[in-house]
Amino acid sequence: MPAKEAGSYDLKGRPRQARTKVEKRVKLLNLRLCCSGAATDRAAARVGGDAMNDSNRPATMSATAAAAAIRQGRLTSLELVSGCLQRISEREDAVAAWAHLDQDYALQQASAADAAVASGKPLGALHGVPVGVKDIIDTSDFPTENGTPAFAGRRPQTDAAVVTALRAAGAVILGKTVTTELAFFGPGKTRNPHDPERTPGGSSSGSAAAVADGQVPLALGTQTAGSILRPASYCGCIGFKPTFGLVPREGVLAQSAPLDTIGGYARSIDDLALLIDILSGDTRQPVTKAVAAAGTQSRSLRLAFVRTASWPMGEPAMLAAVSEYAVSIGATEIALPDSFTRGITDQQAVQFRDIARNYGPILDTNRGVMSTKLAEVVALGRAVTDAQYDASLARRQPLYEEFGVLFRDFDAVLTPAAPGIAPVGLGATGSPAFNALWTYLGVPAISLPLLTVDNMPLGIQAVALRDRDSELLSAAAGLLQSA
Known about the structure:
- The protein has helices at residues 37-44, 63-71, 77-95, 103-119, 161-168, 205-212, 229-235, 269-280, 287-294, 316-328, 339-365, 372-382, 386-394, 396-407, 436-441, 469-481, and strands at residues 98-101, 130-134, 172-177, 218-223, 238-241, 261-266, 303-305, 332-333, 412-416, 445-453, 456-463.
- The protein is α/β, with parallel strands linked by helices and 483 residues long.
- It has two domains: 37-339 and 393-481, Amidase signature (AS) enzymes (Alpha-Beta Complex), CATH 3.90.1300; 340-390.
């Protein structure tokens, strides 16, 4: 997308003479930390539109609420899973979020979960709750085909570490969600649940669409540039990328080892906190407890707002909506130094070089079924020298330290989650331009469905310092509560 001319924005960042339509705005100037389960469940009712509005349907419950209801005997896993399968049957033709789905097997898992409840056995934190798993994450009981015919029929013998953790927590693995080709740019079959003529984003297309459409309360995604945050913005659900390295990646298709991060999609902040606790296996400082503790505090959120060097790539309506939102909540705008511009190009150099290393051999032996876009990026990655790659990685830590000095006193840094609303057309998945810097820095990032432009969802991205996942989720809950 060509850069816009300098000087085409007013003092609040609005493009001059641009028409914008923002249907939802937050006008409270004094946001409070408010992260109770009730608060995030109320916020969850706004995630996913009409699919979330029927409180009598078990499939619309948040994961934490459903797990509590199953433990207390007010809901069975069979009821919950059946509700999800019913929603999928109603919407799969329109949304196409699932790569592999076995209804009988899902119901068998649910029945076994209910039998465990009846027996009085100890129950995991997600006991009986269905979860969608992106189809680059190994599962021993489903195919894992990585979004390409090159891996058609591939059946892993073991689960990925995150799937093992989900099973240990009692989750029902509902099925495998659609991914783009090798979790890169080649689009899959999934459509945007708000408008089937628009992309859901990528690469975690199916996971974002399924959660946003009320088909499953939780789903796993991965991000190397913008593959969790951008689909969340386009589809209108909450997407979270934790601190790099917090969640183990064994059994997941490797694209770029210094960048690949596992996260997920949910209907509430409590759901995401619980999910990250389970996936990370860190019992020393659980995110759920930290988020709950923050809910007892009462102080103003300390929010910063940055445009980044990608600002000229944004659509006028998005730029106006995000700028107005930042002003309305009293965020402090901070200009990033020029050094951060290099971070975006360094992320691409690292990612493309690693794609050439990891996907090049796959491309070379399967050219007849691989996209031309992948071939182009492999060629670009092979042109990145060892010296250039090493230099791009070496600049990361000093840049992060600079980021830490600038933003250590803020609860969250707000910035766009995508260049605009989901583009019309299914031949591409959009640009990660507004996410790549934060992935490169290894910081936690979340997309919140706080805005609407032209009747389509638009996310606000919030980021924080490394290992401040709890603080970021707490701030995100406050933002949702105040919406």
